[in-house]
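Hi C.,

You asked whether I'd gotten around to modeling the 482-residue construct. I have! Everything is below, sequence then structure, no commentary in between.
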Amino acid sequence: MNLKIKQSTTDFSAQALSRILFENFGLAENTQFVVAYSGGCDSQVLLHGLASLRNQSNINIIAAHFDHGLQHQSAIWTKQCERWCNEFEVRFVSVRRTINAKLGESIEANARDARYHWLDEISQPKHVVVSAHHADDQAETFLLNLFQGKEIEQLAGVSPARPIVHGSKTQLIRPLLGFSRAQLMSYAQLKKLKWIEDPMNHDIRFYRNYIRHELMPTLSHRWPGIVIALNRAADSCRRIAECDRAKLSALHESGCCPQFRGVFCLTDPLHLDQFLDVPQVNEKNQFEVTGLIRYWIHNAGYASPSNGQLATLYHQIVAQQASQATLEFNGPDSPDNLAARYYNRHLYLTKSMPGQKSRGRRYLTMTWNMQAMNIPEYGIAVEIANAESGGIQRRAMQGKKIQLVWRKGGERVRLNNRQHHSSLKKLFQASCVPPWERDCLPFLKIDDEIAWVHGIGGLGEYAADSSNLGIRPQFSRLNDAD
């Protein structure tokens, strides 16, 4: 939805909410709403307004309350929210989950992510999740991102409508962005609504609360229209960001190379040729490259590295013209510990690789009965597959000792129709096999002789000729195969 939310000059009402939902957002009058319901003033106003529309439309409403467990009285608040929903004759659902944040992480961000993922879990295909973000929230978000030096994408602030989580078909909409906190408070007082006051919302140790309670009153005294002005600035940033996304989408589509996608790739590799051969490093090129990398990672469904990390990767690739570079991000203990790996003028996105980090100098050799199996030490699964080219003769494996062996370094092998042995390292380089695949994917030995190598194929007398269908090991990431 490409929406422009205008600041309302009239008081909030159920009729105004109806116009926004069914005209501005274009929703059907039988829409099923899932309200992100905290029990605070804003969500109470939203829920009451929606409940008031049931007489003139066929909407269905679910109030969804997420207890983060961050306050000792949160269980009491959940019960109170349920009582209010009973009064409004609205279905109530809730969940309590403990939110943990590691050093350097924001507990607010972790709580928000957990809440959105839960809302996505409980939503059905026809549901629309609706939250009570308003114009003051947008103004605070703009300032918070501005003070942290965020990019245009983040300065765009709270989007009127978007998928609730990346890749979800459930839409999250914010119909109250055109109303101020004061307008919603006036409605709550007019309707004699009650609500929960979370003491954490007044703790100015949190940046947003400091902006809300300390900074915004001062700015509003000097510039009475500051909330409207900041919302207008956020909307301008959103429109600029949309243009940038269109440009990045075209670059992404032309730069992705599915033919180079390997075993450990989380998405198609990204070809960077058009950016690498610049006469000299410049800010425009850096902005385009880092923006494209961020878009590429977001498009794969992951949070991108920081600006500083992306700048470091850019300088390694472009300024230092490194043949290889690796940027690890998201923290070493995160389940989404990721790495952007540069090799052969392409970027590859992978997760952490247990084989490389945990094995030390312990090299595995294991007997293989050619049945499908998992190898958790290296985070891979293996099975037998047919190979039209690069495979092994079936008869060559019958009655033989079959082993999977990991590379130590210094191996030499003999290609088919060659008398002399060649360095495996040089063959890997010539075949552009990425270094992490060389280390984490085993080769196959038949009676203690290397017979097949990933990225190179069948070797010597074991190689299947073009007239016969061969077989080969086929690898996949372990969590893909589970």
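If it helps when you're writing up: The radius of gyration is 29 Å.

Thanks,
B.
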